[in-house]
Automatic annotation (TrEMBL):
Position of the signal peptide: none
GO molecular function term, any single one: transmembrane transporter activity
Name listed for the protein in its UniProt record: Quaternary ammonium compound-resistance protein SugE
InterPro entries: EmrE-like, Small_drug/metabolite_transptr, Small_multidrug_res
Keywords: Cell membrane, Membrane, Transmembrane, Transmembrane helix, Transport
Length: 104
């Protein structure tokens, strides 16, 4: 259960990061509200998961999911560059996250 919550929390990290960008410095109400809710859910889920998952592993997986998710949203929906070096780097992050889960 803790791993599922950790994965969902990592996805919430992606949501709050994109909402933070879209809030334009907290000047837009809806993205700011989405940011706040997603941030709270993300942190609460991380805190729950860290009850049973070691902090180093849990935090690295949480950040890795957030990094990859945010970068993918940026490339797919926000017209950020999607070149081969960036994709290779994201695959390396995913490999590291999978390795941390596997070797836990």
């Amino acid at each position: 259960m803790a791993w599922l919550v950790l994965i969902l929390s990592g996805l919430c990290e992606t949501v709050w990061a994109i909402a933070l960008d879209r809030s334009t410095g907290f000047t837009r109400a809806v993205p700011t509200a989405v940011f706040g809710v997603a941030l709270l859910l993300s942190m609460a889920g991380l805190g729950y998961a860290l009850r049973t998952i070691p902090v180093g592993t849990g935090y690295a997986v949480w950040v890795g999911i957030g990094v990859v998710g945010t970068a993918l949203v940026g490339m797919i929906a926000l017209n950020e560059p999607a070149n081969l070096p960036r994709i290779i780097c994201l695959l390396l992050v995913l490999t590291g996250v999978a390795g941390l889960k596997y070797f836990h």
